[in-house]
UniProtKB/TrEMBL annotation, chain A:
It comes from the Bacteria. One of its GO terms (cellular component) is plasma membrane. It is found in: Cell membrane. This is Inner membrane protein YjjP. It is a multi-pass membrane protein. The keyword Hydrolase does not apply. GO terms for biological process: succinate transport. GO terms for molecular function: transmembrane transporter activity. Residues 13-247 form the Threonine/serine exporter-like N-terminal domain. Keywords: Cell membrane, Membrane, Transmembrane, Transmembrane helix. InterPro entries: ThrE-like_N, ThrE_Dicarb/AminoAcid_Exp.
Length: 255, 161
């Protein structure tokens, strides 16, 4: 081996690194590639088996044929593209600059503990995003305003419930119900109310697991791909349940 | 007039892309690229559907391809993996109207169990909307991922400084 660090500590680091990537919403082939790249930087052969909840990996020293096994649970992180790109860059840096394990761990901790975008700023951006989404579907100015306020209410509720670590499905059902109920006030006005109601819940669509699932399936990681797609479709069903409560309440004025 | 339509479409798609991207915490340097890609993709689909009469699934495939190649090119400039740029850019193209009609027709189906004519109508509506919504999402994802298969070496070393 090129370095003096023990095989075990490198194994522990790679296990934590790969589990964090999977938790932060990175597609499987990138997790595998990045982990192998870090192993290569230390002259090690890394073999991974990735599942939806755990990762099993074996690290083999190419010179001495010593091996080390790790099994790690994948923690539930919020999706973070920032971690995705910074940690991918870190794996290249490890390979190109031959970082020691200590430097690598320090940089990893720094990236992982960096603050996320402020929740209030995200709230505002999501409100504007959903309002312009309403416009794309042909809504008028009144519906855009209604969708904006409905989205802000629903998304604020979602943020607060997620902070209290409530069950995902309950969070999605409740915020879809509240957002669509707020949007159903559009029925009072003479406006494109149906479009307003349709777009008010779209900020909840789990786009990242949905697209990651398709990528995984197409790239041959069918197991994790279908696990992601199943999770995404359960969330979509939750949105539909929340929306249908509102529709049942107001359906007479919709037909 | 046509140019104005296309520009407004692109503008609103860019705002939507930025907002939906912000939920997933992208790095700040990626926002500009996400906005450009979202505007480009949605305006392209809008043109194909409105002026050339292409159906929504095919138009989505082409828009996905444009976003995919764009993210491959712009990703190198801001050192971001392709998925970081193209997932937020694809989100404004999710067929929300069809998804909504899916839920709506399902409920109307269940409400009209005893009326065969109404049941038939809503059943048909449910199936066509489900089919279109899922095909469009699949086409978007495949279109945007295709460049990754075409140029794998470049796609995998975007974050290399």
């Amino acid at each position: 081996m090129k370095t003096s660090e023990s095989l075990l500590s490198i194994g522990k680091f790679i296990a934590e690194y790969s589990a964090h990537l999977m938790g932060a919403g990175v597609h499987t082939s990138r997790v595998v590639r990045n982990s192998k790249r870090i192993g290569e930087a230390f002259g090690l052969d890394v073999k991974l088996g990735v599942f939806h909840k755990n990762i099993i990996l074996t690290i083999i020293d190419k010179e001495t044929n010593e091996a080390c096994n790790e099994v790690i649970d994948i923690p539930a992180h919020p999706i973070s593209f920032e971690h995705n790109s910074e940690l991918s860059a870190l794996s290249w840096e490890a390979l190109d600059n031959h970082l020691s394990l200590e430097e690598l761990t320090e940089k990893y901790r720094k990236i992982v503990s960096a603050p996320m975008i402020h929740p209030l700023f995200v709230l505002l951006l999501v409100g504007f995003a959903n309002a312009s989404f309403c416009k794309l579907f042909g809504g008028d100015l009144i519906s855009m305003g209604i969708v904006f306020s409905a989205t802000i209410t629903g998304f604020y509720l979602k943020q607060q419930m997620q902070k209290k670590k409530m069950n995902h499905y309950i969070v999605f059902i409740v915020s879809a119900f509240v957002a669509s109920l707020c949007a159903s006030t559009a029925l009072i006005f003479d406006t494109t109310s149906e479009i307003a109601m349709a777009t008010s819940v779209l900020y909840l669509v789990p786009g990242v697991p949905l697209i990651n699932g398709v990528i995984d399936v197409v790239e041959g990681y069918v197991l994790t791909g279908f696990a992601r797609l199943t999770e995404a479709s359960l969330l979509i069903v939750s949105i539909a349940i929340g929306l249908s409560f509102t529709l049942l309440m107001v359906k007479n004025s919709l037909i | 007039m046509i140019a104005l339509d296309i520009l407004t479409d692109g503008f609103f798609a860019a705002v939507a892309g930025i907002g939906f991207g912000a939920i997933s915490d992208p790095p700040l340097r990626a926002f500009k690229m996400i906005a450009i890609l979202a505007a480009l993709g949605h305006a392209c689909r809008f043109c194909l559907m409105t002026y050339l009469g292409v159906d929504i699934a095919t138009a989505s495939l082409f828009a996905g391809l444009i976003i995919g190649f764009g993210s491959l090119w712009l990703g190198k400039k801001v050192y971001c993996p392709m998925t970081v740029l193209y997932i937020p850019a694809l989100l404004p193209m999710i067929p929300g109207k069809f998804a909504y009609n899916m839920v709506f027709s399902l409920i109307m189906c269940l409400q009209n169990m005893n009326d065969p004519e109404q049941l038939d109508k809503f059943m048909g509506m449910f199936f066509s909307n489900t089919l279109i919504a899922s095909t469009v999402i699949f086409m978007l994802a495949v279109g945007a991922t295709f460049p990754m298969f075409l140029l794998p070496y470049r796609a995998f070393s975007l974050t290399r400084h």
